[in-house]
User: Fold this.
Amino acid sequence: MNLDATKAYAVLKKIDPNTISLKRLLTLARIEAYSIPAGGGLTYNYAAKRVTDRVLNVLQRLARERKLIAQFEALYNGAVANPGEGRMVLHHLTRGQLGRDVLHQGKNLRSFYAQQQKKIAAFCRQVHSGKIKGSTGKPFTTVVQIGIGGSDLGPRALYLALEQYARERGRLRMEARFISNVDPDDANGVLRDVDLERTLFILVSKSGTTQETLANERLVKAKMAKAGIKGMNPDRHMIAVTSETSPLAQSSEYVRAFFMDDFIGGRYSSTSAVGGAILSLAFGPQVFEQILAGAHEADELACEPDIRKNAALMDALIGVWERNFLKYPSTAVLPYSQALLRFPAHLQQLDMESNGKSVNRDNRRLAYATGPLVFGEPGTNGQHSFYQLLHQGTDIIPLQFIGFRKGQTRFDLKVEGSTSQQKLGANLAAQILAFAEGKQDPNRNKTFEGGRPSSLLHGEQLTPAALGALLAHFENKVMFQGFLWNINSFDQEGVQLGKVLTKEVLRGPKDERLIAYARLLGV
Amino acid sequence: MNLDATKAYAVLKKIDPNTISLKRLLTLARIEAYSIPAGGGLTYNYAAKRVTDRVLNVLQRLARERKLIAQFEALYNGAVANPGEGRMVLHHLTRGQLGRDVLHQGKNLRSFYAQQQKKIAAFCRQVHSGKIKGSTGKPFTTVVQIGIGGSDLGPRALYLALEQYARERGRLRMEARFISNVDPDDANGVLRDVDLERTLFILVSKSGTTQETLANERLVKAKMAKAGIKGMNPDRHMIAVTSETSPLAQSSEYVRAFFMDDFIGGRYSSTSAVGGAILSLAFGPQVFEQILAGAHEADELACEPDIRKNAALMDALIGVWERNFLKYPSTAVLPYSQALLRFPAHLQQLDMESNGKSVNRDNRRLAYATGPLVFGEPGTNGQHSFYQLLHQGTDIIPLQFIGFRKGQTRFDLKVEGSTSQQKLGANLAAQILAFAEGKQDPNRNKTFEGGRPSSLLHGEQLTPAALGALLAHFENKVMFQGFLWNINSFDQEGVQLGKVLTKEVLRGPKDERLIAYARLLGV
Assistant:
């Protein structure tokens, strides 16, 4: 059923947004009450969202009407939730069992994912202990992931999120780097920085056919071969993460192969072997298990039918309210944590690739807006950049703040009466109120209209468990929104045409316009 | 005069966008003809924009009606182009003389900026030759910029844009790092990586009062003092870039101080001492001079009144057409060059902080939309992330592609008949056509509507001169759009309220809601 065919939609349509003033809504009582546990020690606070209790009640009815929790149950119990590709959607099982056993060709898939993680953990112990070494006899100290899209953004965001946390505790086992872009400047830059003899590469491609990733693999191996290091055997410096049916799976060119399968979409694969290999190598398998535990906790919380007790569901519903009724076309993710510097880029893929769709699950064109534009940078950096437009621009952009009471590193200093960590938190608190409340001034240029809604995900510290919960919170939010819009959040047909035309350009295109553009670009 | 008071606006309003089909417009002849030199060897191609010749003719009239070139001339000749702060706007003079001498209190400002650059160059030579050393007698090999907003994003984007270029040629004189966020995890992470004895810090703050930057300075100095290195004197490891009137200017706590002034806005300061110090230290003063030469060339091209010969002006006008008549609220910057990975973040500040305004230059509220949301990531990475929404989402987002015929590094490999660089270019050519043309399919989920407009800035290679031109192109585009919208693109009153409330939180706030949020965040 499409969103605009629901009874709740008709009710929401009748509510005049102009009657809802965020300035009047934002009270102390609301800040204290509008709060939901989100897993991993995180809490989702939606006091500064432009929703009345009446709106929330209708959103609750909408959740029931669209059977969102039942849809989620069906998904994790193995329904074909990705109809376009005829696939189940099982990333939740990479971190725990939510419902029944899910079997495929007689194989229990939760067991399969858990088994891969165990194999990765065993491999890590051999690498960390020096039992598995590079081809010239030196221990591995650096790990480089070669992958693009979901094989890059999520794992990279998670690695960066915990790099200082691990260093501070002396627990960074291996330094990680990433090669993604087909631009050879990317691989050449990374290869210049690493000690090839001590570097283990992870080739990540589910299909084993990703153009960029295979080109980068060959580039890396060619450079290793050309480095003139005696005894260097590039094959002994590379493992593969792929599906069991891919051409890479049985190749002898890899030290090991670890597997995911077609039921784990790229942008949902951080908790599978795609994230598991690099994060376990970098931080040790235990830290990766903590990430999984946090994610699983958030998944369990997402099973709750009461929207006031289900952070991901509430977040999803408010997002749809903002997109389809308040007509806000974009949303910003603003983590007040330097460690989350690439988390917005991961969410950008997660959300925009999942819900940037125009047809419903029956391939019928929709008459309403779906997934928003998602962007963001860490605070306080963004305050000195694009916040001017957020505060005083002509469009309203809803905001998702993320903040922690403690940093990941210990060294801090009081300057003018407060530590840097206190300044960070104070800035975030101030921004929420500034955006919601605004400020009148006789000088119109110094006037802030306010009425800019935001929510806040907050916790004690960005630990592995908090990070896992954060990841799962947004995965589940995006999933619920897909259910609401009645779209398939798990395919990506929109990337196909570019692939086809790229091959045409490389083969020698017939279209004279393609020829002209190719010539401008030296192809 | 406001945009909606012009005659051209009324004419444009009468054009029905539905009559303009990009699919029909995009011909070979247009790709060949709709091309403008943009400086530094770059060319701006707007064949795939949704503009007819009729629209272009009216935009030309609009340019004349709003006297855009005369406004630009007045600006670089020293008019008070930033009325809110009563300041001139002179960043063009940091890279060359465009018009008359501009004097302030008897001082020729072009000479002042050039003299600062000469002083920086002389200082660099002393650092590079080892004449100026760290306090423990070791030569400086790393430079760390401490700054936020315009003191961070532009210089960082430019450094990353040329890092591999310089390395490839053996011309990276010093490695550069950046500390920006007040989150202490940022500074602690950078300090963990560098050899303090060999590190020179640059403190960058025009006013000398930026909260984040001063907190980070103190944190850095405290950590150096605590490192227990015999003979370590933190003051001998830091230079300042500031205005002559700031408290930092005369302090003895810095090895040297270099100056800009109030006529150089933060987001326009990359070609002043703000970018000059770190880029000259990293790459040598000659490379920085090449950046300036490229920027100056683009500035000179921006003086041309014929919009078909002025890339920045054309880009600006088409952007206004897209924002106010086609009603597209955002725009993506998509460089097919890994080196430009942070260039979109710089443009995000440049554009959104300049033109995210709701009042005109007389502080009257505007009835039309101004600056769009700007975001982006390098291609091909973005193709595996948010392009799904760009191709098949319910909103249209205009695209700004950037591409080069050659990479910055030499090592490349043919895989399946093409090099990685050729694949990169082929992907970009394919995307332009895919977005414009789309593709029909019996399966609606595999249908691409097309009609997604894009432009292409292309060149031979991302050299220092090309980079300078790229920087200036967008600065001038944003400036012309500010003129068109009749807004002040050079102030940023929207950042003030947050600063005021942050101080309130740190002093002990009275507002119970601020207290509540501060408590959630551990302040």
Chain A is about 45% helix and 10% strand. The two ends of chain A are 47 Å apart (CA to CA). The CA atoms of residues 323 and 365 of chain A lie 18 Å apart. Chain A touches chain B through 152 residues (CB under 8 Å).
